[in-house]
TrEMBL record:
<feature type="active site" description="For Fru-6P isomerization activity">
    <location>
        <position position="361"/>
    </location>
</feature>
<dbReference type="GO" id="GO:0006487">
    <property type="term" value="P:protein N-linked glycosylation"/>
</dbReference>
<dbReference type="GO" id="GO:0005829">
    <property type="term" value="C:cytosol"/>
</dbReference>
<dbReference type="GO" id="GO:0004360">
    <property type="term" value="F:glutamine-fructose-6-phosphate transaminase (isomerizing) activity"/>
</dbReference>
<dbReference type="GO" id="GO:0006002">
    <property type="term" value="P:fructose 6-phosphate metabolic process"/>
</dbReference>
<keyword id="KW-0677">Repeat</keyword>
<keyword id="KW-0963">Cytoplasm</keyword>
<dbReference type="GO" id="GO:0097367">
    <property type="term" value="F:carbohydrate derivative binding"/>
</dbReference>
<keyword id="KW-0032">Aminotransferase</keyword>
<comment type="subunit">
    <text>Homodimer.</text>
</comment>
<feature type="domain" description="SIS">
    <location>
        <begin position="43"/>
        <end position="182"/>
    </location>
</feature>
<dbReference type="GO" id="GO:0006047">
    <property type="term" value="P:UDP-N-acetylglucosamine metabolic process"/>
</dbReference>
<feature type="domain" description="SIS">
    <location>
        <begin position="215"/>
        <end position="356"/>
    </location>
</feature>
<keyword id="KW-0315">Glutamine amidotransferase</keyword>
<keyword id="KW-0808">Transferase</keyword>
<comment type="function">
    <text>Catalyzes the first step in hexosamine metabolism, converting fructose-6P into glucosamine-6P using glutamine as a nitrogen source.</text>
</comment>
<dbReference type="GO" id="GO:0005975">
    <property type="term" value="P:carbohydrate metabolic process"/>
</dbReference>
């Protein structure tokens, strides 16, 4: 049932090229440069006339929501707020009929997310679900939505659910950006062609598993780790830290790289591994200077860079290369090495990878 893999988590990590392709199927028609999603088409006026989009979710799904904030604002110029469902539902939030709420949940059963949906509906908002489990409570409770089609995710640590959530949300952002004119036809086409390459690129990336494993062996006994990223990759830093925490029980913090000097920099010494996403677009130069600051405090730097990088390679202790793509699509790639890294560290530490202590796959109580 584990398809020859030692753990469900590893199987699910390796299923991602197929899972992302399944998420595209029938939706992204790359040869025609089209995105067809009836759930968005049928509600296009609601999305395009929305005052704002409010995304509610928990855990890894909340991280996918954060990536979506960057995607929707950049591609479709629609204001987005991302909320922990548990906070949103209890703080007497301002919700109007002009708001669109997107609820993201792998299981479709998360109690806080479900309650947030019910609250938003009672205030007249249009609620759209992004779920993996077909027929789940959240899929039924929302007005409309899109399934991620990742297939069953058994490992408690979410992997393919995360990348397929980002895939669906990217398709929606692109579609809305095209519909409201925020994206030119050319930019839209470029994105589709680059998106279309992602499954193959993930497949390529999975081949570096041994390299990631050798890095895992060096840092498996660390007591604390920092994960840094900026822009589209800030949420990937949060997700990388969560993956490490939940299956290896090593304390890890994710931060926007520039926030480092507002506190966490005090933690840095020669015992602190720092995982930095430094892809060659967006905020590259700024991240390079963050890396230099770490270096001068003797922190250990493991950097995720774009293939062909030279600048970061000179400074970092280890680098992991990802294939080149549009900056907005990099989270689908940069997250893969972090999944593998956490997996290998947890295995090396003899932890129960698929069923970490104290955690349940779906959190049906608040
Ligand atoms: O099923 P959901 O997506 O609603 O679950 C939300 C979180 O409980 C979940 O993402 C959790 O954080 C995972 N264990 C992360 O790997």
């Amino acid at each position: 049932e584990k398809g020859g893999y030692d753990h469900f988590m590893l199987k699910e990590i390796h299923e991602q090229p197929k899972a992302i392709t399944d998420t595209f199927r029938g939706r992204m028609l790359a040869d025609k440069n089209m995105i067809k999603m009836s759930s968005v088409d049928l509600n296009l006026d609601k999305f395009l006339n929305a005052n704002r989009i409010i995304i509610v979710a928990c855990g890894t799904s909340w991280h996918a929501g954060l990536v979506a904030e960057y995607l929707f604002e950049d591609m479709a110029r629609i204001p987005v707020e991302v909320e922990y469902a548990s906070e949103f539902r209890y703080r007497n939030p301002i919700i109007t009929e002009k708001d669109v709420v997107i609820a993201i949940s792998q299981s479709g059963e998360t109690a806080d997310t479900l309650a947030a949906i019910k609250l938003a509906k009672s205030k007249g908002a249009f609620v759209y679900g992004v779920c993996n489990v077909v027929g789940s409570s959240i899929a039924r409770e929302t007005h409309s939505g899109a399934y991620t089609h990742a297939g069953p995710e058994i490992g408690v640590a979410s992997t393919k659910a995360f990348t397929t959530q980002i895939t669906v949300l990217t398709l929606i952002a692109l579609k809305l950006g095209k519909a409201n004119g925020s994206l030119s036809d050319q930019a839209f086409k470029d994105y589709i062609q680059k998106m279309n390459r992602i499954p193959k690129q993930v497949e390529e990336l999975l081949k570096i598993d041994d390299h990631v494993k050798s890095i895992a062996a060096v840092y498996k006994d660390a007591k604390n780790c920092l994960y840094l990223g900026r822009g589209f990759n800030f949420p990937v830093a949060l997700e990388g830290a969560l993956k490490l925490k939940e299956i290896s029980y090593i304390h890890a913090e994710g931060y926007p790289a520039a926030e480092m000097k507002h506190g966490p920099i005090a933690l840095i010494d020669e015992n602190m591994p720092i995982f930095v996403i430094a892809t060659n677009k967006g905020h590259y130069e700024k991240v390079v200077s963050n890396i230099q600051e770490i270096k001068s405090r003797a922190g250990k730097i493991i950097a995720i860079v774009t293939v062909g990088d030279t600048q970061v390679k000179e400074i970092a202790d280890h680098t992991i290369e990802i294939p080149d793509t549009q900056e907005a699509l990099t989270p689908l790639l940069t997250t893969i090495p972090f999944q593998l890294l956490s997996y290998h560290i947890a295995v090396m530490l003899n932890k129960n990878v698929d069923q970490p202590r104290n955690l349940a796959k779906s959190v049906t109580v608040e």
